[in-house]
Amino acid sequence: MIPRRLDKFALRLAEPRDRAACYAVCLGTGDSGRDATHLHADPEALGHVYVGAYLAFEPELALVLEDAGGVCGYALAALDTRSFQRRYVREWLPPLQSLRPAPSGPAERWSRDEQLWNLYHHPELFIPESYAQYPSHLHIDLLARAQGRGLGREMMAELLARLTKRGSPGVHLAMAADNHRAARFYARLGFRELARGADAVYLGRSLQ
User: Fold this and answer.
1) What is the rounded average pLDDT for all residues in the chain?
2) Contacts with 198 (C-beta within 8 Å, 6 or more apart), sequence order
3) How far apart are CA 30 and CA 80, in angstroms?
4) Is the N-terminal amide bond of 95 cis, ω within 30° of 0?
5) Per-residue pLDDT, 7
6) 30: closest CA among 50, 55, 16?
7) What is the SS3 assignment for 194?
8) CA 163, 179, 46, 38: dihedral to nearest 10 degrees?
């Protein structure tokens, strides 16, 4: 059970005060696992799309990893993807749409931030064909100082156990197609490919 100590790190449930730190982790891993700070003038754009709604809507499935330097990783999940997506569209996105208008002009000329702002208005929502088998979804990110220590496996084990306890039969996730390190990590945890897009690979794992 959490909170618990993992060597010099602590794993616990996220709290509202962690939002800025989790957004910073998202930005620090946002270039296929590498630091994306130099790619974004808007430091919250990635976090708004990939982190904030989980902290707000799924607090019992939002874990953070921290050390003496602060929050250095998170593992986030939604129990029922369709329900989460409905809240994401109806509740989470409207304030962001007011904050940032949809970009105009040719999409190939958009900045990284404009690409994300476009997702405020036109979200990319994935549902696997085998939804009944994999209704939950998750994602995990760790800064470089927390990688290579087995901490990601510990965080995933805790999150998967929480999903199982809540009755989920399976979970899926999206991964950047060029993130080969992540692909090896998920393969060791028993995930298999469900679908593939131009830039993303979707993986799933049974929890039964």
Assistant:
1) 94
2) 177
3) 25
4) no
5) 73
6) 50
7) strand
8) 150
Task: Answer for the pair 65, 10: CB distance below 8 angstroms, yes or no.
Answer: yes
Q: Residue 200 is which amino acid?
A: A
Longest CA–CA separation in the chain, Å: 50
Phi, psi of 65, deg, nearest 5: -110, 135
Which tens digit of pLDDT belongs to each residue from 134-172?
A: 999 999 999 999 999 999 999 999 999 999 999 999 999
Reported as a pLDDT band with limits 50, 70 and 90, residue 4 is low
Q: What is the torsional sign of CA 147, 168, 81, 126? A: positive
Listed by start position, the domains of the chain span 4-168
pLDDT in tens, 71-113: 999 999 999 999 999 999 999 999 999 999 999 999 999 999 9
Q: Where are the alpha helices (DSSP H) in 3-137?
A: 19-28, 45-50, 52-57, 81-87, 93-99, 112-121
CB burial of residue 158 (10 Å; 0-12, 13-18, 19+)? middle
Q: Which CATH architecture has domain 4-168?
A: 3-Layer(aba) Sandwich (3.40)
Q: What is the pTM of this model?
A: 0.93
